């Protein structure tokens, strides 16, 4: 058995960052089972509108839980804790168009390194990468390493109809597959000859074990290690 995990992400979503880091961390072991990963930049605002969903911060109960939930997620996924920037949320169209072009025009490693920088700049350093001058500064930073000519090329592409349409098409693709938020996964299970056996959608950065089950992959589920307190001590307290 094998398969493909199509992963739909937006830099405005911190949970997309957790999913991005986690899925890439498991790329090699997934490949050993014949499972590949495809990362797809999308526009989360368009997914929310198209699906009728509302961002979690618009619901007071979800907004209140959000800070502690992100803290727990950061610990679980092994990334530093982050806080939303004061200008959150951003309109992520420009950076998502730019990264769509970068994915098409540059090697995979360059695309992934730059996408990772999006979250670093937005969520940890609080730079508004939806602003053209800030995004250009990110692209030309030592971490991204694009030349001045390449930055001009990328920024021009991000404003070109072709790449605007490409991002919208990928967003619509996610919607057509049932997406209502990000990260969204469309998992395809295939046979030895690549024939498709089944397909299924999964939402959120906490559904990886469901995907492993769907793909029929061997894995160790979350386990609680035994403590020091004896069963006799527990019964004595009842």
UniProtKB/TrEMBL annotation:
Entry superkingdom: Eukaryota
Entry GO CC: mitochondrion; peroxisome
Top-level EC class: transferase
One GO MF term attached to the UniProt entry: glutathione transferase activity
Record's catalysed reaction(s): RX + glutathione = an S-substituted glutathione + a halide anion + H(+)
Keyword entries, A-Z: Transferase
Pfam families assigned: DSBA
InterPro entries membership: DSBA-like_thioredoxin_dom, GST_Kappa/NadH, HCCAis_GSTk, Thioredoxin-like_sf
Residue ranges constituting the DSBA-like thioredoxin domain according to the UniProt record: 5-209
Catalytic-site annotation from UniProt: 13
One Gene Ontology term from the biological process aspect of the record: glutathione metabolic process
EC number from the UniProt entry: 2.5.1.18
Family: Belongs to the GST superfamily. Kappa family.
Entry protein name: Glutathione S-transferase kappa
Organism: Talaromyces rugulosus
């Amino acid at each position: 058995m094998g398969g493909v995990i199509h992963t739909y992400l937006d830099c405005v979503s911190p949970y997309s960052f957790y999913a991005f880091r986690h899925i890439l961390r498991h790329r090699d072991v997934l490949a050993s089972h014949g499972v590949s990963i495809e990362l797809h930049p999308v526009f989360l605002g368009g997914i929310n509108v198209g699906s009728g969903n509302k961002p979690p911060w618009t619901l007071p109960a979800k907004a209140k839980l959000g800070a502690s939930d992100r803290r727990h997620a950061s610990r679980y996924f092994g990334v530093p804790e982050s806080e939303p920037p004061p200008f959150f949320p951003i309109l992520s169209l420009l950076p998502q168009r730019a990264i769509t072009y970068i994915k098409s025009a540059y090697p995979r490693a360059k695309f992934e390194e730059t996408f990772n920088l999006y979250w670093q700049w937005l969520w940890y350093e609080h730079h508004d990468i939806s602003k053209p001058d800030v995004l250009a500064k990110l692209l030309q930073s030592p971490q991204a390493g694009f030349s001045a000519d390449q930055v001009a090329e990328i920024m021009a592409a991000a404003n070109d109809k072709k790449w605007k349409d490409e991002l919208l098409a990928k967003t619509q693709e996610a919607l057509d597959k049932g997406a209502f938020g990000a990260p969204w996964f469309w998992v395809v299970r295939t046979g030895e000859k690549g024939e498709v056996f089944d397909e299924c959608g999964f939402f959120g950065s906490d559904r990886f074990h469901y995907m492993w089950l769907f793909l029929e992959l061997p894995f160790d589920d979350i386990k609680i290690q035994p403590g020091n307190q004896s069963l006799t001590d527990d019964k004595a307290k009842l």
